[in-house]
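Bumping with the actual sequence this time:
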Amino acid sequence: MINKNRLVKLTQRLIQINSQNPGSDEFQIARFLKDYFAKAGLRAKIYEFKKRRTNLVATLKTNKQKHSLLISPHLDTVPAGTNWSIPPFSGRIYKDRIYGLGATDCKGNLACAIEALNSLIEDRVVLGYNLILAATADEESGSSLGLIPFLEKGILKPDAALILDADEFNIIITQKGLLHLKVKIQGKRAHGAYPWLGINAIDIAIHILKDLKVHKISRLKNRYLKPATMNIGTIRGGDRVNVVADWCEFELDFRFLPGDSAAEILKYLKSVIRKYTDKFKIEIEGIQKPYCIERNHALVNYLIKAMQGLKVRPQIKGSEGATVITFFQNKNIPAIATGFGKEGCAHSVDEYIEIESLYKGALVLERFLKLYHF
């Protein structure tokens, strides 16, 4: 049975452990959880792909079962920043909310996962599969020290995955792809008093960016996602005010729908740039594929059933931002995401999670784990 008081206290304790990324590491919180699981009678294993960037894996095995389900929240948080009215590592309770850094993203979800396992162990529930909990490092900076090497090295090979990193009991079944890149434009240097003797790279960049903003990246549509987007993240250029700029560089963030690809966007981008110059270079900074899973997949159906049984209204949604569910598609592992935090609270000051949502989240997760089968 889910123990509400224990769940609340665990959430507070997790918040009190500094796991900022960057700014700290996941060593302390992972060691705390390893000891916590030991007291519950469950062995957990530590993995590090860089010193003190610690991951934790615990497996609840069932005799003679070959299939496995992974549930995975993350251990790290973004940096706290400033201007908190409630100390970010306090875990303070105020008006039926628990406040602190990571309360919504993702320590509340982490606490729900741990409490669900605790309850299953205490009640001696026998699942129809092996259950793996992976509490991972480095999610806030791309997962290169967490989930990605777990999958690439074959350490984790589940048959399906439920990622605990969302808000308001949303069920995430699709997400946009991501392309981050830098464009470098080369011009010709000249005296600022004689601009006709040079080629201003900033001028060229302005024309390119205007062109990109006017035209749509893609005409594809998705019922769960907004249209594809482009954001101009940074722009730099020139050396002095009285010199024609012979260089300019800008960074672009493209978010694109399932059905589109980074290669198609790059082809489009190059065609726009070549209208204004041939002297350019594109540096790729990051690519993630878009992701989607069938609306009637068993993961989705059982999660809906678990929520409805507890009078929680499930919401099928897509993610505009990047989540780790995309990494599973390279291994042909079906994955969805859900979570129980407060919408709009992640990465904000005075972050919080509502205690009732926390409790219902643990109940939903426990019920889902009992219902699910392959």
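The tokens above came from a reply further down the thread. The longest strand covers residues 177-186.
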